[in-house]
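Recap from last week: sequence in, structure out.
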Amino acid sequence: MQWSTPIAKEIPGFTLSDPWVGSHVTIADMFAHRSGLPDHAGEGLEDLGFDRAEIISRLRFEPLSPFRITFGYTNYGLTAAAVAAANAERVSWDDLANNILFKPLGMTSTSYRYSDFISRKNRAWLHVKTAHGYEPSVYNGVEEEAPAGNASSSVNDMAKWMILQLNEGRYNGKQIIAKAPLEEMQTPQMAKGSVFGHMSFNGLGMAITYDDLGLMHLSHSGALEQGAATVYDLLPSAHLGIIVLSNGFPHGEPETIASMFYDLVEFGHYQRDWQSFYGGLFDQMTAPLLSKLNGEKEPANPAPARSNDAYVGTYSNDMYGPAIVSADSKGLHLMIGPKHMTFALRHWNGDTFVFRPGGGGFRTLTELTFKPATSDHAARMTIEWLNDHGNGTFTKQ
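Predicted structure tokens:
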């Protein structure tokens, strides 16, 4: 395997909405997030309970931006690349990571398996912020997203990984990872934008930024809306690194701590109000999780809905599969996904209904809007929760 190996070479049938891109997109393209896939492509499929192989297969239904010139952060793109690497070695990704990284480094508390995490007696319990303060959330793992998600570890284990990154792939005098591909990982591959007047880039699986002294940092933030927020930040020129792990919904606290640390290291005092900066940034990032109804009052005099018969039926969608709207004495219900997830629909206004899709206790109400048949199209419904990339409209069969 090389960074330049096409994913389609190792995942039979893999493609994207542009077949040429699907056949040429490489391991490096996905790790640099320059495939053209939209931000967080495929994660609605994860929410609905589709397995890893099916999610990777259905990436072909996502719209594409221009290949290799557009940055779009896609967990499942990176996951597809790692699955391709594991397929080349004829092992699972979990076993591959364990065999070539975790075991050689002595990372005994690290795993991509949810079962390993849940079996540990000394483990963090994830929390989300509610109207009553932070409360424990339900976390059932996101194994389908590994390696982009679901890794559990400890500060001690992650310190070993940071030493590996800062020491050209060596640990305790032994070359664990070859120097050349590690250097590619730490080299700018894709421009992302400007932060405080300094250009930022993506390497292969990590961000590359420059601080006020012109020094390069290697970093990455990770989070789960079920209640986890983490960051590592490496300063290779000083052979220095920091990692901050938390068990709360992401609001920027780990990033604030890391930036304050480097301010003290490099300047002896704080350069900025990092908490305000990161708090505002994370508010923008998490805004898409909120419905456009967030904060809206329920209509006092809503337009009436049509009869239930006008809405009941089976609706099709290439990306998400069939969805069934049914009715009983309590009202309308939506059933969707391979696990037949069922949601009670509550009337909001006219042909618009609302339901709460879940997501660690954070997601608010989301809209489901029906559109009656016309001479131009069959009856349809659009689910706001699944429509981030414009593919959340289902057609009645």
